[in-house]
């Protein structure tokens, strides 16, 4: 499984949707499942899966798959 597939699986788990529903251009509130509450679930899933602690300022900036990839990269996790 590629790192992108792993990331998409984390999204799917947090939002309780099929992994096929996750696309590279997905953005916050771009699907009904990605609301403010599920955003916090996503953060929790990301922190557990990647064993990182995401600062609040980054959590507030996590508005798309690409932004999340950039935030993970800041934490030493390269998603390709």
Count of DSSP-assigned helices = 4
Question: Could you estimate the helical fraction of the residues in percent?
Answer: 55-70%
Gap from first CA to last CA = 11 Å
Shape: globular
Task: Compute the CA-based radius of gyration.
Answer: 11 Å
Overview of this protein structure:
The mean pLDDT is 94. It contains four helices and no strands. It has 80 residues and is mostly helical.
Brief digest:
The chain is 55% helix and 0% strand. By secondary structure, it is an all-alpha fold.
Strand-helix topology:
Elements (H helix, E strand, L loop, with lengths): L2 H13 L20 H15 L5 H6 L3 H10 L6
Helix pairs in contact: 1-2
Features:
single chain, 80 residues, mainly alpha, 4 helices, 0% strand, globular
């Amino acid at each position: 499984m590629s790192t992108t597939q792993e990331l998409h699986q984390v999204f799917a788990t947090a939002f309780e949707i099929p992994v096929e529903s996750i696309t590279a251009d997905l953005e916050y509130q771009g699907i009904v499942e990605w609301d403010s509450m599920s955003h916090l679930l996503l953060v929790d899933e990301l922190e557990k899966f990647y064993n990182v602690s995401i600062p609040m300022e980054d959590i507030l900036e996590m508005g798309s798959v690409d932004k999340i990839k950039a935030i993970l990269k800041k934490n030493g996790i390269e998603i390709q």
